[in-house]
Protein backbone atom coordinates (compact mmCIF):
# COMPACT_ATOMS: atom_id res chain seq x y z
CA UNK A 1 0.00 0.00 0.00
CA UNK A 2 2.80 2.41 0.90
CA UNK A 3 4.62 1.63 -2.35
CA UNK A 4 1.50 2.46 -4.36
CA UNK A 5 1.12 5.78 -2.54
CA UNK A 6 4.79 6.58 -3.15
CA UNK A 7 4.40 5.75 -6.82
CA UNK A 8 1.36 8.02 -7.14
CA UNK A 9 3.14 10.89 -5.36
CA UNK A 10 6.22 10.49 -7.57
CA UNK A 11 4.00 10.38 -10.67
CA UNK A 12 2.20 13.59 -9.67
CA UNK A 13 5.46 15.31 -8.79
CA UNK A 14 7.11 14.32 -12.06
CA UNK A 15 4.10 15.41 -14.10
CA UNK A 16 4.04 18.72 -12.24
CA UNK A 17 7.63 19.25 -13.38
CA UNK A 18 6.73 18.31 -16.96
CA UNK A 19 3.71 20.63 -16.91
CA UNK A 20 5.85 23.43 -15.54
CA UNK A 21 8.49 22.87 -18.23
CA UNK A 22 5.84 22.82 -20.97
CA UNK A 23 4.47 26.12 -19.64
CA UNK A 24 7.97 27.63 -19.59
CA UNK A 25 8.64 26.32 -23.11
CA UNK A 26 5.48 27.86 -24.51
CA UNK A 27 6.19 31.13 -22.72
CA UNK A 28 9.75 31.20 -24.06
CA UNK A 29 8.52 30.50 -27.58
CA UNK A 30 6.03 33.36 -27.44
CA UNK A 31 8.63 35.80 -26.07
CA UNK A 32 11.29 34.80 -28.63
CA UNK A 33 8.73 34.90 -31.44
CA UNK A 34 7.58 38.37 -30.39
CA UNK A 35 11.16 39.64 -30.19
CA UNK A 36 11.91 38.17 -33.61
CA UNK A 37 8.86 39.82 -35.19
CA UNK A 38 9.75 43.16 -33.62
CA UNK A 39 13.37 42.92 -34.80
CA UNK A 40 12.26 42.05 -38.35
CA UNK A 41 9.96 45.08 -38.36
CA UNK A 42 12.78 47.36 -37.21
CA UNK A 43 15.18 45.98 -39.84
CA UNK A 44 12.66 46.52 -42.63
CA UNK A 45 12.50 50.21 -41.73
CA UNK A 46 16.27 50.64 -42.00
CA UNK A 47 17.54 52.27 -45.18
CA UNK A 48 19.81 49.39 -46.19
CA UNK A 49 20.25 48.13 -49.73
CA UNK A 50 18.53 44.82 -50.54
CA UNK A 51 21.64 42.69 -49.92
CA UNK A 52 22.48 44.19 -46.51
CA UNK A 53 18.87 44.01 -45.35
CA UNK A 54 18.57 40.37 -46.43
CA UNK A 55 21.82 39.45 -44.63
CA UNK A 56 20.74 41.30 -41.46
CA UNK A 57 17.38 39.50 -41.37
CA UNK A 58 19.05 36.11 -41.85
CA UNK A 59 21.55 36.82 -39.05
CA UNK A 60 18.81 38.00 -36.65
CA UNK A 61 16.70 34.88 -37.30
CA UNK A 62 19.70 32.63 -36.64
CA UNK A 63 20.49 34.42 -33.36
CA UNK A 64 16.91 34.04 -32.06
CA UNK A 65 16.74 30.36 -33.10
CA UNK A 66 20.00 29.57 -31.30
CA UNK A 67 18.83 31.51 -28.23
CA UNK A 68 15.58 29.50 -28.15
CA UNK A 69 17.47 26.18 -28.30
CA UNK A 70 19.81 27.23 -25.47
CA UNK A 71 16.89 28.24 -23.26
CA UNK A 72 15.16 24.90 -23.97
CA UNK A 73 18.24 23.08 -22.72
CA UNK A 74 18.15 25.12 -19.52
CA UNK A 75 14.42 24.49 -18.99
CA UNK A 76 14.39 20.73 -19.55
CA UNK A 77 17.74 19.98 -18.00
CA UNK A 78 17.71 22.10 -14.89
CA UNK A 79 20.79 20.65 -13.19
CA UNK A 80 24.41 20.86 -14.24
CA UNK A 81 24.83 17.08 -14.24
CA UNK A 82 21.88 16.56 -16.57
CA UNK A 83 23.12 19.21 -18.97
CA UNK A 84 26.60 17.68 -19.15
CA UNK A 85 25.22 14.16 -19.61
CA UNK A 86 22.85 15.30 -22.32
CA UNK A 87 25.57 17.19 -24.17
CA UNK A 88 27.87 14.16 -23.98
CA UNK A 89 25.30 11.71 -25.37
CA UNK A 90 24.07 14.23 -27.94
CA UNK A 91 27.58 14.97 -29.21
CA UNK A 92 28.50 11.28 -29.48
CA UNK A 93 25.31 10.43 -31.35
CA UNK A 94 25.61 13.40 -33.68
CA UNK A 95 29.24 12.65 -34.47
CA UNK A 96 28.39 9.08 -35.53
CA UNK A 97 25.01 9.42 -37.18
CA UNK A 98 25.07 12.99 -38.49
CA UNK A 99 28.65 13.57 -39.61
CA UNK A 100 27.75 15.35 -42.85
CA UNK A 101 25.19 17.57 -41.14
CA UNK A 102 27.74 18.62 -38.51
CA UNK A 103 30.33 19.37 -41.20
CA UNK A 104 27.75 21.42 -43.11
CA UNK A 105 27.09 23.45 -39.94
CA UNK A 106 30.83 23.99 -39.48
CA UNK A 107 30.95 25.01 -43.13
CA UNK A 108 28.25 27.61 -42.45
CA UNK A 109 30.35 29.05 -39.62
CA UNK A 110 33.40 29.07 -41.89
CA UNK A 111 31.46 30.94 -44.59
CA UNK A 112 30.20 33.43 -41.99
CA UNK A 113 33.57 34.12 -40.35
CA UNK A 114 36.19 33.54 -43.09
CA UNK A 115 33.90 34.89 -45.86
CA UNK A 116 35.38 33.02 -48.85
CA UNK A 117 32.36 34.48 -50.61
CA UNK A 118 29.32 36.60 -49.80
CA UNK A 119 25.80 36.97 -51.19
CA UNK A 120 25.99 38.47 -54.67
CA UNK A 121 29.43 37.05 -55.54
CA UNK A 122 29.90 34.88 -58.62
CA UNK A 123 31.76 31.70 -57.66
CA UNK A 124 32.69 28.31 -59.06
CA UNK A 125 32.70 25.22 -56.83
CA UNK A 126 32.67 21.53 -57.77
CA UNK A 127 32.39 22.47 -61.43
CA UNK A 128 29.27 24.59 -60.83
CA UNK A 129 29.24 28.32 -61.59
CA UNK A 130 26.67 30.72 -60.22
CA UNK A 131 25.80 33.90 -58.34
CA UNK A 132 25.33 33.32 -54.59
CA UNK A 133 21.78 34.22 -53.56
CA UNK A 134 21.46 32.64 -50.09
CA UNK A 135 23.51 31.00 -47.32
CA UNK A 136 21.79 28.66 -44.85
CA UNK A 137 22.88 26.43 -41.98
CA UNK A 138 23.32 23.34 -44.18
CA UNK A 139 23.67 24.69 -47.70
CA UNK A 140 24.13 27.75 -49.85
CA UNK A 141 22.21 28.53 -53.03
CA UNK A 142 23.42 29.88 -56.37
CA UNK A 143 21.68 31.13 -59.48
CA UNK A 144 23.28 28.87 -62.08
CA UNK A 145 25.44 30.37 -64.81
CA UNK A 146 26.63 28.55 -67.96
CA UNK A 147 26.26 24.78 -68.58
CA UNK A 148 23.15 24.79 -70.80
CA UNK A 149 23.72 28.45 -71.72
CA UNK A 150 26.87 29.66 -73.45
CA UNK A 151 28.73 32.83 -72.50
CA UNK A 152 28.38 32.30 -68.74
CA UNK A 153 24.87 33.73 -68.58
CA UNK A 154 22.12 32.74 -66.17
CA UNK A 155 20.18 29.54 -66.89
CA UNK A 156 17.36 30.45 -64.48
CA UNK A 157 17.99 27.36 -62.35
CA UNK A 158 18.87 27.50 -58.64
CA UNK A 159 21.66 25.24 -57.38
CA UNK A 160 21.76 24.10 -53.74
CA UNK A 161 25.32 23.26 -52.67
CA UNK A 162 26.14 21.62 -49.29
CA UNK A 163 28.32 23.84 -47.11
CA UNK A 164 30.80 20.97 -46.72
CA UNK A 165 31.90 21.63 -50.32
CA UNK A 166 33.90 24.68 -49.18
CA UNK A 167 36.26 22.17 -47.48
CA UNK A 168 36.23 19.31 -50.00
CA UNK A 169 36.30 21.16 -53.35
CA UNK A 170 38.31 24.03 -54.84
CA UNK A 171 36.40 27.30 -54.73
CA UNK A 172 36.95 30.14 -57.20
CA UNK A 173 35.61 33.61 -56.43
CA UNK A 174 35.25 35.81 -59.51
CA UNK A 175 34.97 39.02 -57.48
CA UNK A 176 37.33 38.74 -54.52
CA UNK A 177 40.38 40.95 -54.70
CA UNK A 178 40.86 41.23 -58.48
CA UNK A 179 37.35 41.69 -59.87
CA UNK A 180 38.18 41.34 -63.56
CA UNK A 181 38.86 38.12 -65.46
CA UNK A 182 40.86 37.24 -68.55
CA UNK A 183 38.73 36.11 -71.47
CA UNK A 184 39.95 34.56 -74.72
CA UNK A 185 38.43 34.36 -78.18
CA UNK A 186 39.66 32.22 -81.05
CA UNK A 187 39.29 33.87 -84.46
CA UNK A 188 40.24 31.68 -87.48
CA UNK A 189 41.17 33.47 -90.69
CA UNK A 190 42.10 32.25 -94.14
CA UNK A 191 45.80 31.45 -94.51
CA UNK A 192 46.02 33.41 -97.76
CA UNK A 193 44.51 36.63 -96.40
CA UNK A 194 46.30 39.66 -94.92
CA UNK A 195 46.56 38.38 -91.35
CA UNK A 196 48.84 41.25 -90.27
CA UNK A 197 46.19 43.80 -91.22
CA UNK A 198 43.56 41.74 -89.42
CA UNK A 199 45.71 41.69 -86.31
CA UNK A 200 46.33 45.46 -86.48
CA UNK A 201 42.60 46.17 -86.80
CA UNK A 202 41.79 43.84 -83.92
CA UNK A 203 44.29 45.62 -81.67
CA UNK A 204 42.62 48.95 -82.45
CA UNK A 205 39.22 47.44 -81.72
CA UNK A 206 40.37 45.99 -78.39
CA UNK A 207 41.97 49.28 -77.41
CA UNK A 208 38.68 51.11 -78.02
CA UNK A 209 36.67 48.63 -75.93
CA UNK A 210 39.11 48.21 -73.01
CA UNK A 211 40.48 51.74 -72.74
CA UNK A 212 39.26 52.42 -69.19
CA UNK A 213 39.72 48.84 -68.06
CA UNK A 214 43.52 48.91 -67.72
CA UNK A 215 43.63 51.70 -65.11
CA UNK A 216 40.82 50.08 -63.17
CA UNK A 217 42.57 46.70 -63.25
CA UNK A 218 45.86 48.20 -62.01
CA UNK A 219 44.05 49.95 -59.14
CA UNK A 220 42.36 46.69 -58.16
CA UNK A 221 45.68 44.81 -58.23
CA UNK A 222 47.31 47.47 -56.03
CA UNK A 223 44.45 47.17 -53.54
CA UNK A 224 44.38 43.35 -53.63
CA UNK A 225 48.16 43.32 -53.11
CA UNK A 226 47.55 44.16 -49.46
CA UNK A 227 46.15 40.66 -48.92
CA UNK A 228 47.30 38.58 -51.91
CA UNK A 229 50.44 38.22 -54.01
CA UNK A 230 48.93 39.19 -57.38
CA UNK A 231 51.27 40.38 -60.10
CA UNK A 232 50.88 40.86 -63.86
CA UNK A 233 53.57 42.06 -66.25
CA UNK A 234 51.03 43.15 -68.83
CA UNK A 235 47.36 44.09 -68.52
CA UNK A 236 46.84 45.26 -72.09
CA UNK A 237 45.03 43.02 -74.62
CA UNK A 238 47.17 40.48 -76.46
CA UNK A 239 46.71 38.60 -79.74
CA UNK A 240 48.66 35.37 -80.11
CA UNK A 241 49.15 33.87 -83.58
CA UNK A 242 49.33 30.20 -84.54
CA UNK A 243 48.80 28.03 -87.61
CA UNK A 244 46.43 25.11 -87.26
CA UNK A 245 44.51 22.94 -89.73
CA UNK A 246 45.62 25.10 -92.69
CA UNK A 247 44.27 28.22 -91.00
CA UNK A 248 45.78 31.16 -89.19
CA UNK A 249 44.40 31.32 -85.65
CA UNK A 250 44.32 34.62 -83.80
CA UNK A 251 43.89 34.02 -80.06
CA UNK A 252 42.54 37.23 -78.56
CA UNK A 253 43.11 37.70 -74.81
CA UNK A 254 41.65 40.66 -72.92
CA UNK A 255 40.30 41.76 -69.53
CA UNK A 256 36.56 42.05 -68.91
CA UNK A 257 34.00 42.00 -66.12
CA UNK A 258 32.74 38.48 -65.21
CA UNK A 259 29.13 39.30 -66.06
CA UNK A 260 30.00 40.90 -69.43
CA UNK A 261 31.85 38.05 -71.11
CA UNK A 262 29.13 37.31 -73.64
CA UNK A 263 28.48 40.98 -74.40
CA UNK A 264 32.15 41.69 -75.11
CA UNK A 265 32.36 38.64 -77.37
CA UNK A 266 29.20 39.79 -79.16
CA UNK A 267 30.72 43.25 -79.78
CA UNK A 268 34.03 41.83 -81.01
CA UNK A 269 32.46 39.26 -83.33
CA UNK A 270 30.19 41.85 -84.94
CA UNK A 271 33.21 44.11 -85.44
CA UNK A 272 35.12 41.22 -87.05
CA UNK A 273 32.23 40.50 -89.43
CA UNK A 274 32.06 44.19 -90.44
CA UNK A 275 35.84 44.15 -90.92
CA UNK A 276 35.63 41.23 -93.38
CA UNK A 277 33.05 43.15 -95.41
CA UNK A 278 35.05 46.35 -95.43
CA UNK A 279 38.44 44.81 -96.27
CA UNK A 280 38.59 42.36 -99.17
CA UNK A 281 41.97 41.05 -98.04
CA UNK A 282 40.55 39.67 -94.77
CA UNK A 283 38.51 36.48 -94.77
CA UNK A 284 37.45 34.19 -91.96
CA UNK A 285 38.73 30.62 -92.07
Task: Tell me about this structure.
This protein has 8 helices and 8 strands; from the N terminus they run ααααββββαββααββα. The strands form 2 sheets. A 5-stranded antiparallel β-sheet has the order 4-3-2-1-5. A 3-stranded antiparallel β-sheet has the order 6-8-7. The longest helix has 44 residues. The termini are far apart. It has 3 domains: 96 residues; 61 residues, SH3 type barrels, CATH 2.30.30; 98 residues, Alpha-Beta Plaits (2-Layer Sandwich). Helices cover 54% and strands 20% of the residues. It is of the alpha+beta class. About 2% of the residues have low confidence.
Descriptive tags:
SH3 type barrels; three-stranded antiparallel sheet; alpha+beta; Alpha-Beta Plaits; 285 residues; five-stranded antiparallel sheet; 3 domains
Amino acid sequence: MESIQAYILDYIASHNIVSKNIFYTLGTFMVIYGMKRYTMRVLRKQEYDATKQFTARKAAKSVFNILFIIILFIIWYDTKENILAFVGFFTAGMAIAMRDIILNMIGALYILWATPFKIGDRIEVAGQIGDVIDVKLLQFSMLEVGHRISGEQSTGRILHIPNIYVFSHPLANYEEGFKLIWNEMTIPIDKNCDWELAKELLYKLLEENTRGMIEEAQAQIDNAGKNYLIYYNNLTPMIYTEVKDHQIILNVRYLCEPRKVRMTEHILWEAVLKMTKEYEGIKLG
